[in-house]
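Async update (no meeting this week)

Hi team, since we skipped the sync, here's where things stand on the single-chain job. The sequence we agreed to prioritize is pasted below, unchanged from the tracker. I ran it this morning and attached the output directly underneath so nobody has to dig for it. Comments welcome in thread, and please keep replies under the output.
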Amino acid sequence: MTLQDSSRAPVKWRGYEISPVAQAVRIEPSPQFGMIWNRPVGVRIQTPQGEKQFLPVYDLTRLIQIIIVLSGLLLFFFLKVIYKRS
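Output:
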């Protein structure tokens, strides 16, 4: 399992340089099987004056996915406790 940060070549617009930043988690247990999960991290911006800024990107989809998985696990354990009593 590896974690990689990647940044693309900047796009220039009116003197600003804008470049997206992403993170990739790679799981490759064998040459025939693997999984790559990419997620946005943020955007790097350089102003015409040379100032650099990093604007984070909040991934709402990932948060919703985590809530759905945790809700499913909670429901599973709740039903397991209920049916174990009867």
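Quick observations from my side:
The chain has one helix and five strands.
The longest strand covers residues 16-30.
Reply here if anything looks off.
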